[in-house]
Amino acid sequence: MFIAFLLLFLELISIWVNGTVTKTVTYHADITTEFYNKFIKTVYTEDTDNFDIEETKKGKRYIIHSESPIEFQKYKYYWNDTHLDLNGLTNICEYRISWMIDSKELEQTYSAEGIQMKSLYYHCHFAQSCMGLECRVDSRLLVPPIFLTIFITIFWCFKKMLWRDMKREERIQRATIENTLNPQQMEAGPPSYAAVFSRVPPSYESVMLAKITYTVPSYS
């Protein structure tokens, strides 16, 4: 599994280096986010020069300026993917407008020829993925570093355990060799009975009658 994710990571790098164009399609944005609401209010306000506005029976109709991109925050949005600004870019995002989800303004956006617009195009940098009308950090690129970190951690723990076992075996072998080369002297036991009593010991009766007094030499 780790090898598979590593190959995926290398493939993404090769796409970036070789300049292969990739187009990601996003069908709808999260219309509850602040970004989407700000985009609609800012781009479609009458004070901007993004559209020519016409009044129809259904309401306002927004006529695009096909050669001019829509600029909002750090993004530039285009109405077709053949725009000159998109030439040479490798990560192009297509946002497809949905009449069921998107705002009324996007639904009523038309070209000068009267064709209803179906998509918006924008560009994301390397290591980013398309998410609605925004670019987000590509989570796929985080998978190889995570697996690599786990692999290094497991390898480090295994190496530490192996090193600890080797040190323990080394201490045991060293102690065995030292005992073989320098055997410890047995401690001398207490003096024997014969050493204490140079002659035949007195009888029990003699000791009890206090006829014999015997002093045991001190060994301290």
TrEMBL record:
The chain crosses the membrane at residues 141-158. It comes from Caenorhabditis brenneri (Nematode worm). Keywords: Membrane, Signal, Transmembrane, Transmembrane helix. The keyword Nucleotide-binding does not apply. This is CX domain-containing protein. InterPro entries: CX. Residues 77-136 form the CX domain. The lineage of its organism: Eukaryota, Metazoa, Ecdysozoa, Nematoda, Chromadorea. Residues 1-19 form the signal peptide. It comes from the Eukaryota.
